[in-house]
Input
Amino acid sequence: MKKNIQELLLDLIQAALDQCGFKEADVYLDFPTDKRFGDFTTNIALKLAKVHKRNPREVAACIIDAINKNASAKGFIREIKAEGAGFINFYLSDDYYYEELKEILSRGPEALKINLGKGKKVLLEFVSANPTGSLSVAHARQAAVGDVLASIMDFAGFKPKKEFYLNDKGNQINILGNSVDLRMRELAGEQIEFPENYYQGEYIYEIAKIAKEKKIAHEGLGDFAGNYILDIIKKELEDFGVKFDYWYSQKALEDSDKIKNVFEKLKDKGYLYEEEGALWFKSTVFGDDKDRVVIKSDKSMTYLAPDIAYHEDKFRRGFELLINMWGPDHHGYINRLKASIQALGHDAGALSIIIVQLATIYRDGKPVQMSTRKGQYITLREVLDEVGKDAARFFFLMRKTSSHLDFDLDTAKKQSADNPVYYVQYAHARISSILRSSAIKADKHADFTLLKEKEEMALAKKIAQFTETINVCISTLDPYMLTVYLQELGQAFHKFYDLHRVLGTDDALTKARLALIDATKIVLAAGLDLLGVSKPEKM
RNA sequence: GCGCCUGUAGCGCAAUGGAUAGCGCACUAGCCUCCGAAGCUAGUGGUACAGGUUCGACUCCUGUCAGGCGCACCA
Output
């Protein structure tokens, strides 16, 4: 796997810093805010000048000089300039971009991969909904983010697995069972009072009817209903294009001796103590606000107890990096869980918690109110039925995961310009159409140097930014930047298309432009594949 | 009261502390005898407020105001 352009430039800068007498500086490369400032820029001279009390332009001059003398810089850098307060701006040669196009055409999507993960085993745990009802849009957003992040990590050389932790035991399942029981008695003609904290949805009646037919015993109702609903959830996820590698049962965990073992380990290390009849975990040692109860005074466990064992088990299964996706209501839970993995001897950095903010669904310009217990909430199923898989996935990924998301059903349904999914897909279909109607085939042997127009180079540069986009997604653990990038790539193509004819009278130029749009198509397709959104040849 | 997320153009959103704050929608005016007009071009218009750190702040810190969510020996 080759080094990408950022890595090459960073190597050059580091070597230059060494020559200029600076040690161990953190160098960042930016895409400049303005195209006049080159293809890449760094503010390292400004930073160093500050620390060493030197003139930034002088520092920049020394660095530039050193890079210019470096033989490995030849070929892909056209010019390096110190500009503004002391920014170092890199202007890449067109040849560099032509090489990129050629690589993509000869090797396909493989040419876009970068090995950031180096085979690191990652476990992404997400959704993990109680099997007590259909998935909500909050789960849907997690499902989309988790699934795509896993795909991107795989693309970037990690070995990710996706896991759904199944809360198939405990309070919620008991309440579910009781809810079904009550509805069964109601259907049998009995007068009942239905408690407010029971599951109110219509689907409970359906389950009650089936449970009656199958003559399910009272004690088995919770499990029966849970399994019934789990099948519904699995089907919903399948239709959403999300496939889990593992379904991890909480019940199986609690029936094993894993919890006992992990408690012994914690006790040996002195992180457990008894007080007021309860067993406490000393999470404050690792920065939590207060210690946490793991076994209540009535001898039952809190949720934290199996969770500690669960996460220890993740490490035991060989995963080196754990990524959990939680709703914003769990953020107070982060410190205690992190404390537990540290108590068991793991690095705090081995666990990343991604808080996936809620999505608000808008219909007819108004937010739709939701309540889980009352069964009044928009389900993943409804969103899928209404807007389809492609728009649903794309929309859930369109915003920063840590930010609120407004999901407008009406926009998502529209097959028009204000729907970004179609904008990107349209670019792909448009290119496909041109390639179909061309008598000449696009290939890597085209004379790329014929691509001189502003819009041609802008498109070529945008193509070359794909790997950096993947890089950003990995470092932020957030796939949303990819949706932004694909819209920009689509835009660069549409602009090019509008001003320049691909299929013209000059065969050599036609070939070069065919190669350019074919490379665009390959990158669009790679991005849409990662998002799990279809890439239509026609639409 | 405490914690998390958010405040940028009429609306929805961008901008690892960097250079003239970008994009879409809407609105206005244009572009199809020609590869897909689900597209393109141009115009209008903005950092909630008050301090601070910095050569430089939408970004970091403090406070105020506004919105969303959460604060259990629940899961």
